[in-house]
């Protein structure tokens, strides 16, 4: 049975009874370049890049099925993909079991988290000079155990996690221990179908393919600030950038951590690190938290680089469109109850990661550096070492 594509949230109708869906499906499709894996997937992609496995355009895909139903027999489900995706006939959605090494949800604090030492310096906004009241300094020695540092994560940008193991009676996801091959150069466009033992059959057609990759450059300015620029990404609804660095005491001990956000207001976390629907991004653009889709540059203040002189890792996200589907369609007669069987949501984004003040990754990958620049050079400090490795020049 065909699903109804929702181009905008349905307007509530008076007196209509709405029954929540038995199953919810979430599909997150992202395009990554550079060291983008540092933002959402941990250090994996960054380490891959250090060994020559990253930097080029790649794709990230996460599939999640949550249901209020108990399975018929063993829990089992598959996402049958279009042939154009070139990922086989289907992708298995595996139900995590105790001791299976469940992945942490975005925003979840890992069990092995260690409280940092020293201080955290918070900066925000685009411009050669940091704005008034910056940086906000948080001394971890003065933070009570278990207390979240103030003004660190935003409460104005809620993160919609979607279905997961904790909010579903039965749950399955991909990638998993049975299947985790990264998406290649195939296309998302076409018919998608999800069938299993614990949910109604779900089917929808996608018209939006992977977003275009981001090619970002950063250039030091005479003032000590850094100009971050990038290509305009089609279908982008807005951009958000952040950078993170640290300084030491010269004996290998970290003293300060430095965190900068492109938001023109003091907003640092929450849903900004996640996938955001277009309506939320539009609101954040008007609030100057997210950069508008027409903007293709942002200057990181000189004070940020001065606070972290050795190296900084940066990330830029282009939020993308969202497709929503529901079955059955909402009855036109408000007196008829809307008993939803299932909903499906497909979210898009494009991200890139880079060294701030380090080598131009785009130029390095495209072989645009001169022969002289490719010769091994003596590297100074942690930043020089990483720069030499990432640019392929060595140390």
What does this structure look like?
Residues 1-20, 94-114, 363-383 are annotated as: Disordered. Residues 8-19 have a biased composition (Polar residues). By secondary structure, the chain is mainly beta. Helix content is 12%, strand content 33%. It contains seven helices and 19 strands. The protein has helices at 37-40, 44-50, 278-286, 302-307, 361-365, 371-374, 381-391, and strands at residues 4-6, 18-19, 23-34, 55-67, 77-80, 90-93, 119-124, 136-139, 170-174, 190-196, 202-206, 216-220, 226-230, 238-248, 254-261, 297-300, 312-327, 338-339, 342-356. The strands form four sheets. Strands 1, 3, 4, 7, 8, 9, 14, 15, 17 and 19 form a ten-stranded mixed sheet that branches. The protein has a four-stranded antiparallel sheet with strand order 6-5-10-11, with no helix packed on it.
The geometry reads as elongated
Q: Helical residue percent?
A: 10-25%
Q: Can you count the beta strands?
A: 19
Helix-strand pattern, N to C? EEEHHEEEEEEEEEEEEHEHEEEHHH
Count of domains: 1
Instruction: Label the structural class.
Output: mainly beta
pLDDT < 50 runs, ≥5 residues = 37-54, 359-395
Q: Characterize the main sheet.
A: 10 strands, mixed
End-to-end separation in angstroms reads: 60 Å
Radius of gyration: 23 Å
In DSSP terms (H or I, runs of 4 or more residues), the helix count works out at 7
Mean model confidence by pLDDT: 81
Strand content: 25-35%
């Amino acid at each position: 049975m065909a699903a109804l594509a929702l181009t905008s949230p349905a307007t509530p109708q008076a007196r209509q009874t709405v029954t929540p869906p038995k199953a919810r499906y979430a599909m997150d499709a992202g395009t990554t370049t550079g060291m983008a894996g540092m933002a959402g997937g941990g250090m994996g992609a960054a380490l891959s890049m250090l060994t020559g496995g990253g930097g080029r355009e790649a794709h990230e895909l996460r599939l999640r099925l949550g249901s209020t139903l108990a399975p018929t027999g063993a829990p089992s489900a598959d996402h049958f993909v279009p042939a154009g995706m070139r990922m086989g006939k289907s992708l298995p959605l595996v139900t995590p079991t105790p001791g299976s090494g469940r992945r942490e949800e975005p925003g979840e604090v890992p069990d092995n988290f260690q409280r940092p030492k020293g201080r955290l310096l918070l900066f925000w906004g685009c411009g050669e000079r940091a704005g008034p009241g910056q940086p906000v300094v948080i001394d971890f020695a003065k933070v009570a155990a278990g207390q979240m540092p103030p003004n660190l994560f935003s409460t104005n940008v809620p993160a919609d996690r979607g279905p997961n193991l904790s909010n579903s009676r039965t749950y399955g996801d991909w990638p998993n221990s049975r299947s985790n091959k990264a998406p290649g150069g195939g296309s998302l466009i076409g018919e998608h179908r999800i069938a299993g033992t614990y949910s109604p059959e779900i089917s929808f057609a996608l018209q939006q393919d992977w977003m275009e990759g981001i090619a970002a450059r950063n250039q030091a300015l005479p003032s000590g600030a850094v100009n971050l620029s990038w290509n305009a990404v089609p279908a982008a609804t807005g951009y958000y950038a952040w950078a993170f660095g640290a300084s030491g005491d010269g004996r290998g001990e970290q003293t300060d951590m430095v965190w900068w956000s492109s938001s023109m207001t003091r907003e640092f976390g929450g849903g900004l690190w996640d996938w955001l629907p277009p309506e939320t991004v539009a609101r954040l653009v008007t609030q100057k938290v997210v950069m508008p889709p027409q903007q293709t540059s942002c200057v990181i203040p000189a004070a940020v680089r001065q606070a972290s002189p050795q190296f900084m890792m940066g990330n830029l996200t282009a939020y993308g469109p969202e497709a929503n589907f529901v079955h059955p369609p909402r009855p036109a007669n408000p007196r008829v109850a809307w008993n939803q069987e299932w909903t499906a949501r497909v979210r898009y984004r494009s991200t890139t990661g880079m060294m701030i003040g380090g080598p131009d990754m785009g130029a390095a990958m495209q072989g645009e550096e001169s022969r002289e620049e490719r010769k091994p050079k003596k590297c100074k400090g942690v930043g020089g070492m990483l720069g030499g490795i990432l640019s392929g020049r060595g140390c």
